Amino acid sequence: MVTILNHPLITHKLTIMRNKETKTKDFKQNLDEIAGLMAYEVCRDLPLKPITVETPVAACHTYELQNDIVLIPILRAGLGLVNGINDLIPTAKVGFIGLYRDEETLEPHEYFAKFPNNLAEAVNLVLDPMLATGGSACAAIDMIKKRGAKNIKLVCLVGAPEGVAAVEKAHPDVDIYLAALDEKLNDKGYIVPGLGDAGDRIFGTK
Ligand code: PRP
Ligand code: URA
Questions:
Q1: Cα(19)–Cα(56) distance, rounded to whole angstroms?
Q2: pLDDT digit string (tens) for 43-66?
Q3: pTM for this model (two decimals)
Q4: What is the pLDDT of residues 12-38, one digit of tens each?
Q5: Residues 6+ apart with CB under 8 A from 100
Q6: Which of 31, 74, 99, 101 to probe ligand 1 with, by most ligand atoms within 8 A of CB?
């Protein structure tokens, strides 16, 4: 299932990020804010379990989240989505996947992996602003499935139809959330119109 989060605030902030004149500070700040807004929607259907707590007045039969949440940013650019979501879910644990895309072949290469030990029971949110060919997202999802993850959601800012199709084919059980579905990839594997190289724009490396 693919969900495009058509919210005026998300669209407005994404427009700022797309603008090539937007500098690192504003790029990061808007990404942070969008991440929080997206988390609100991505978590809408999380299961709850009943619990009774004592208020200062009486027993209250209420609910709490049934599952732990694990945030799994794909380094580097995925780091830009962590803080905004963690602010809303401060109990979330964080795992890390280091992948870079070879500029010639566009194939992802793994260079780091570190996870909490509750992937099998948790709702795992894989985070990456860009879903281009889908190679990185598919590799990341493969990595956490090998470690037992079952409940997985992929949270990206901008997707290309090619990337969505690749994830849907390889991992039909994974729900995909996007702030925008763009037109296509160019011959260098960049999303058109996209927002350029997310990692470089977040970290100021170009
Ligand atoms: C970018 C982006 C994704 C990947 C998307 O990362 O953040 O991880 O490319 O492309 P794909 O869907 O074709 O795999 P990059 O490899 O440039 O690394 P970086 O985050 O360190 O800049
Ligand atoms: N990675 C990026 O950062 N941007 C793109 O458009 C494609 C892959």
A1: 51
A2: 999 999 999 999 999 999 999 999
A3: 0.97
A4: 999 999 999 999 999 999 999 999 999
A5: 108, 109, 111
A6: 101
